[in-house]
Amino acid sequence: MHRAVRPAWTCGGCGLDWPCPTRRQELVAEYAGAGVSLMLYLAACFVDACQDMPAAIAGNLYGRFLLWPHTAASDAWNRPRSGVDPGRGR
Ligand SMILES: [Zn+2]
Question: Is 47 inside any structural domain?
């Protein structure tokens, strides 16, 4: 399970920074057609991460939590769930 391990916000499945590439793909699939809901969820995670890691640079956390969907999934989440190709991504 690629869940966040707090307070370091690493991935419990692969050890990378959360959300890891696998979790990002899962989130894109889970929130297909619901981009606003995905951003609300990620914003809540971002706030929690800022509280858990007060020494982290906020801009880095912002990019890690909130910028990736715009480049990685902006077209995917606007399509119906059946339109998501699980093989896409980098
Ligand atoms: Zn992971």
Answer: yes
Residues 28 and 23: their CA atoms lie apart, in Å, by 8
pTM: 0.78
User: Domain for residue 88, yes or no?
Assistant: no
Q: For 1-29, write each residue's pLDDT tens digit.
A: 999 999 999 999 999 999 999 999 999 99
CA of 4 to the centre of ligand 1 (A): 8
C-alpha to C-alpha distance for 39 and 5, rounded to whole angstroms: 20
Q: Say how many Å lie between the CA of residue 16 and the centre of ligand 1.
A: 6
Give the range of the structural domain holding residue 60, as residue numbers without chain letter: 22-78
Ligand 1 centroid to residue 44 C-alpha, Å = 19
> How many domains, in total, are found in the chain?
1
